[in-house]
Amino acid sequence: RTAAERNTQVTHTSVERRVELARAKVNLTLHVTGQRPDGYHLLDSLVAFPQIGDRLCAEPADRLELIINGPFARNLDGPAEENLIVKAVAAFAKSSGIPAPKLRIDLTKRLPVASGIGGGSSNAATMLRLLEDITGQYLAEDTLHELALSLGADVPVCLNQEPQIMTGIGDVIRQGPQLPKCGIVLVNPKVEVSTPDVFRSMARRDNPAMPLMPEVFESPDHLASYLATCRNDLQEPAISLCPEIDSTLSALEGSDHIKLARMSGSGATCFGLCEQEEALEVERALRASFGNWWIAAGALT
Ligand code: C5P
User: Fold this and answer.
1) Cα 252 vs. chain centroid, distance in angstroms?
2) The GHMP kinase C-terminal domain covers which part of the protein (predicted)?
3) How far, rounded to the nearest angstrom, does the alpha carbon of residue 26 sit from its chain's CA centroid?
């Protein structure tokens, strides 16, 4: 049978099987500039999506099912309805006024969980995009953005996995600069960090905003020298809760070829920037010294 014939048997389905990379979200900068009365923090952050991520596959089935495999599957052993992917399916159906799509969803969890690189947020955002394609129900961008925000502050920025600048509580998003061809190495010391705890441990919340940014970064050195004038304001409080982050940063900073090292999000994952051709060499060297850490190298965009 042709794909079209198969599809006629499954209501609300216009595409039969889709596979996407739900990329890691890396905060190249994260300035915390204030706090709203409801407790959420005001941010100013340059975000990029390297070619490192979870694999998400969805296809029509006779019921909704989420199957999780991969190196970090065991860290997601809670009930399926608590998974952001399943929440995304329910929220999408409600918002678009269709019955909950019956899908077999396969997640290969390669990114560490609760680790500051938005794995869950990226999964949810990617699922929303997949749902649009699979059901043929394309939502207005505003509606999709609201839906994403209802799932988490970091979900909207993950809808378009390209360089972006986040302000507000993460909900105000604009296109980011053009980033150079560049390598990135992500390192996590295999410790989970609680985001609310890190925000609570901040000594001050009224920090200066991000310095004016060029529209185009010509080279990895240009990017690194700009980023050196920026910060992640969550890095210090995260280190106070999780000293392993300090060791992770020291390991990256001590690596050959690394131009800049910093923590992403609320940690514990840290990133190092290098020339694209050198990323794998950095990964190999770190792995030889820190065999039990999670280490992944790839292109920055
Ligand atoms: O929205 P999300 O569930 O991803 O946020 C997790 C937690 O991070 C929130 O409960 C809040 O404590 C903290 N947070 C914050 N300010 C933000 C984003 C998150 O205080 N802008």
Assistant:
1) 20
2) 230-290
3) 6
Contact status, residue 68 vs residue 107, Cβ threshold 8 Å:
yes
Query: Pick the catalytic residue: 54, 154, 171, 233?
Result: 154
Residues 7-46 pLDDT 10s: 444 444 456 899 999 999 999 999 999 999 999 999 999 9
Please report the atom of ligand 1 found closest to the CA of residue 43: 21
DSSP codes, 188-257: E-S----HHHHHHT-S-S----PPP--SB--SHHHHHHHHTT--BTTHHHHHHH-THHHHHHHHHHTSTT
**171 flagged as catalytic:** no
ipTM higher than the 0.90 cut: yes
Domains in the chain: ranges and CATH: 3-173 (3.30.230.10), 176-299 (3.30.70.890)
